[in-house]
Amino acid sequence: MNFTEKEKKAKEYICLALDTDDLDEIEEVCSELSEYVGYIKVHAAFLSHGPKVISIIKKHNCKVFLDLKFHDIPNTVAHYARIATMHGVDMFNLHICGGKEMILAAINSAEEEAERDCSARPKIIGVSVLTSLDNGSMNQVGIPGNVNEQVLRLGKLAAETGVDGIICSAADIKHIKDKLPKNFFYVTPGIRPVGVNAHDQKRVMTPGNAVKSGSSLLVIGRAILGTEDKKKAALEIVKEIASVMD
Question: Which three-class secondary structure string do you get for 112-152?
Fold first, then answer.
């Protein structure tokens, strides 16, 4: 595929959510779509097959986002972070609500492992409020206030500890961006092109609007993988993003 320079930059905004643990399907998807995306996100596939999945994705020249949302006592999460770094992932995430001590343990462990291996530390991204939650469902689990307040609260904690960015809805960014570091990395699920079903997501936005809002990386799964022509769907998203870039 011959991309324009702007389209080459646009595809780096796309993180393909690989929601399968079938190795043959993973190989097929990576072969078909790797040139249209910057990252590929894995979770179930890693639990089923371990680092073999990372090798497949790397073979197709894509960056790996390990989406296991670490949340445990500091010593345990530090161990997880070390292993993720050892396997060469480019980014992994953890729950900010695990607290400052847990986050720092993960960062320190990842940095130590990267230094030992003479490699770059993976980006570490904090999970704020899941995009499947709205104010009512968040309050149901005992968190008072509204989503924007909670995302900002957790975002500030993430920034204080040295986390590279947060996962949040693209709709949240306008409420928090001016209160967080300028170089913060915003990973945004709940991305749906016009006309695509929102499914279980409650806070959604189109790819173009997400980038205009300040998203750094758009997590997109069913809007590409659930279509008959995956390449066409991916290319349309690349072009939409390119159209709103400066």
Answer: HHHHHCCCCCCEEEEECCCCCCCHHHHHHCCCCCCHHHHHH
Domain boundaries defined on the chain:
5-240
- For the full predicted model, state whether its pTM sits above 0.90: yes
Long-range contacts of 108-115 (CB under 8 A, 24+ apart): 108/78, 109/78, 109/79, 109/81, 109/82, 109/85, 110/81, 110/82, 110/84, 110/85, 112/82, 113/81, 113/82, 113/85, 113/86, 114/85
Whether 182 is a known active-site residue: answer no
pLDDT in tens, 101-127: 999 999 999 999 999 999 999 999 999
CATH code of 5-240, in short, is 3.20.20.70
Q: Which one is catalytic: 69, 177, 202, 231?
A: 69
- Do residues 34 and 62 make contact, with C-beta atoms less than 8 angstroms apart? yes
